């Protein structure tokens, strides 16, 4: 009997968006057929995003434009998770200062809360999310409310946003302005914290999928969920090899097609003082604290073997240097 695929081993896959399903206005190759195959296999799909500026309806519409049909109820945003945190702390009907794009105020309304726009409206909480038009006036209102004792919840703290021209200022940079002005520290709803992912999973066995180690993978760790890193976005393969424990994914894939494959095994073999890790045709060997790699295997197989070796050695307090020429063989993954 064939081994279950990564997707078939869970009830729901939690997919990051930018860098995983699409890149700006372009679809990521292989994403649409992988999502369709998950649905055909009876696995639920949730699109989970730290981007708080847009309501789920707009996110679903954008997904349709990149050939991934989606319903609004399949989308989970950090604004929604933040609104739930506020409601749990303050109760339905609470007045909340909404800072960010229309997705922030919409999430508050949907959660039974009352969004307001000024600290003079006596809000009991502030929900701060990204919005391209957020400026000094909105940030100052947030600072006034936080200083007055309002609960402060940030949808996410991503310092930058991926854009076609390069990294742009993200919500974390705007949150830093309010923090600098008040000395307060917000509660955070989005990745890498657990609330957004736990809300999206709804108590079911889930797999977190994304391209960023410090948000998607770290968020999976915080939520106690397995993770799949894909090489289609921000983090390059060499960064994965050097990742600290909290940023290490459970599984490695080139793209979302990895969801349709069984988990890849890495075999470990000891021969006296030497240890070899093997994945497919790739072989990585460490002897006398020197790492070498054989010529075989695909870049992804080599990455799996390198991660197994480097992580084991780092955890044992005996890290090894990976030669630049070996890391260079991972470059085809980064060019995707």
Q: How is the secondary structure organized here?
A:
Blueprint lengths: L11 E4 L6 E2 L2 E2 L3 H10 L3 E6 L6 H10 L9 E3 H13 L4 E5 L2 H9 L3 E3 L8 E4 L7 H12 L3 E4 L5 E4 L2 E4 L1 H12 L4 E2 L6 H7 L4 E5 L2 H11 L3 E4 L6 H5 L9 E3 L13 E5 L2 E6 L2 E6 L2 E4 L5 H17 L8 H5 L2 H4 L2
Parallel strand pairs: 1-4, 1-13, 4-5, 6-7, 6-8, 8-9, 9-12, 13-14, 14-15
Antiparallel strand pairs: 2-3, 10-11, 16-17, 17-18, 18-19
Helix pairs in contact: 3-4, 5-6
Question: What would you say this structure looks like, in words?
Answer:
- This protein is of the alpha/beta class and 336 residues long.
- It has 3 domains: 7-50 and 193-260, Rossmann fold; 78-188, HAD superfamily/HAD-like (Rossmann fold, 3-Layer(aba) Sandwich), CATH 3.40.50.1000; 267-334, no CATH class.
- The protein has 12 helices and 19 strands.
- A 6-stranded parallel β-sheet has the order 5-4-1-13-14-15.
- β17 (274-279) and β18 form a beta hairpin.
- α3 crosses α4 (102-110) and α5 (136-147) crosses α6 (171-182).
- The relative contact order is 0.12.
């Amino acid at each position: 009997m064939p081994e279950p695929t990564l997707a078939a081993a869970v009830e729901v896959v939690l997919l990051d968006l930018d860098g995983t399903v699409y890149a700006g206005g372009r679809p990521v190759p292989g994403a649409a057929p992988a999502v369709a195959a998950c649905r055909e296999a009876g696995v639920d799909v949730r699109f989970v995003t730290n981007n708080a500026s847009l309501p789920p309806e707009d996110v679903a519409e954008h997904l349709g434009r990149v050939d991934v049909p989606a319903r609004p109820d399949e989308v989970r945003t950090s604004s929604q998770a933040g609104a739930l945190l506020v409601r749990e702390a303050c109760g339905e009907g609470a007045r909340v200062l909404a800072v960010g794009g229309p997705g922030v105020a919409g999430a508050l309304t949907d959660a039974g809360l009352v969004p307001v726009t000024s600290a003079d409206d006596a809000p009991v909480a502030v929900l701060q999310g990204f919005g391209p038009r957020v400026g000094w006036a909105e940030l100052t209102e947030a600072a006034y409310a936080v200083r007055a004792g309002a609960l402060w919840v940030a949808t996410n703290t991503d310092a930058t946003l991926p854009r076609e021209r390069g990294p742009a200022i993200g919500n974390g940079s705007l949150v830093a302005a309010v923090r600098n002005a008040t000395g307060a520290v917000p509660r955070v709803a989005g990745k890498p914290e657990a609330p957004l992912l736990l809300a999206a999973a709804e108590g079911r066995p889930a797999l977190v999928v994304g391209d960023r180690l410090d948000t998607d993978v770290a968020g999976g760790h915080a939520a106690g969920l397995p993770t799949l890193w894909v090489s289609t976005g921000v983090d390059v393969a060499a960064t994965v090899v050097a990742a600290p424990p909290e940023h290490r994914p459970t599984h490695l894939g080139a793209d979302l097609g990895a969801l349709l494959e069984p988990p890849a095994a890495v075999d470990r073999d000891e021969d006296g003082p030497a240890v070899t890790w093997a994945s497919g045709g790739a072989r990585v060997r460490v002897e006398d604290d020197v790492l070498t790699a054989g010529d075989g295997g695909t870049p992804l197989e080599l990455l799996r073997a390198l991660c197994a070796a480097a992580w084991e050695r780092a955890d044992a307090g005996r890290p090894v240097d990976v030669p630049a020429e070996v890391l260079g063989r991972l470059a085809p993954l980064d060019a995707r």
